[in-house]
Amino acid sequence: MKLYDTNRAPNPRRVRIFLTEKGISVPLEPVDLGKGEHKSAEFTGLNPRQRVPLLVLDNGTAIAETMAICRYFEALQPEPNLFGHTPEEQGLVEMWQRQVELDLFYPIMMVLRHLNPAMAQMEVPQVPEWGEANKPKVLAALGFFNDQLADRAFVAGSRFSVADITMLVAVDFLRVIRTEVPEHHTHLKRWYDVVSQRPSAKA
């Protein structure tokens, strides 16, 4: 198998962090987004949506979408567990992962894709008003997750999970829209200091 990957986008990093936490090594196939390699006929044949990450199995099956790839590896190698053990824990991890994805990660992407001139070829059409509309959503989400972390160590509970991976990548990706976690968000900063020290954070 091989994983089509790029260092220029946050979603492939989520998979790399996940694999590092699992201790799984997968051959990486770099895709240069700047050169438009994701739009080549060869790559489009594997993933018509022309997006990375993309996992191609030995039998030729292609699995796109970040969480789908992570779930494949969770099923392949259940431990260390990152999606939850019990039904309750699984539900909470899924809930928080999705909320981080929709409420923080997605608005950051919209600010970038609709306000950065360098993204004009990837986001057609760019709608600057939509980019501006998402700026306050980013700040509101940071405040919300800061409050949620007041009484627990990690996003979904007492231990590290895939929800923390999504949050870590989202917080790091704030730099592309020139935003930082406000100083008064002490719970979020405490959490970030812990998770950013994990070896996988460098993936």
Describe the protein's topology.
Layout: E1 2-5, H1 10-22, E2 28-30, H2 41-46, E3 54-56, E4 62-64, H3 66-76, H4 87-115, H5 128-148, H6 162-172, H7 186-195
Parallel strand pairs: 1-2
Antiparallel strand pairs: 1-3, 3-4
Helix pairs in contact: 1-3, 1-6, 4-5, 4-6, 5-7
Descriptive notes:
This protein has helices spanning 10-22, 41-46, 66-76, 87-115, 128-148, 162-172, 186-195, and strands spanning 2-5, 28-30, 54-56, 62-64. The model has no long low-confidence stretch (mean pLDDT 97). Helix 1 links the parallel strand 1 (2-5) and strand 2 (28-30). It starts with a strand and ends in an 8-residue tail after the last helix. Helices cover 50% and strands 6% of the residues. The protein contains 7 helices and 4 strands; from the N terminus they run βαβαββααααα. The protein has a 4-stranded mixed β-sheet, covered by helices on one side. With 203 residues, the chain is an alpha+beta fold.
Proportion of helical residues: 40-55%
Shape: globular
**Biggest pleated sheet:** 4 strands, mixed
Number of continuous helical runs: 7
Strands of the biggest beta sheet: in what spatial order? Answer: 2-1-3-4
Low-confidence stretches: none
Give the radius of gyration. Answer: 17 Å
Query: What percentage of the residues does DSSP assign to strands (E)?
Result: 5-15%
What structural category do the secondary elements indicate? alpha+beta
Q: How far apart are the first and last residues' alpha carbons, in Å?
A: 19 Å
- Please provide the count of β strands: 4
Could you state the order of secondary-structure elements as H and E?
EHEHEEHHHHH
Oligomer: single chain
- Round the mean pLDDT to the nearest integer and report it: 97
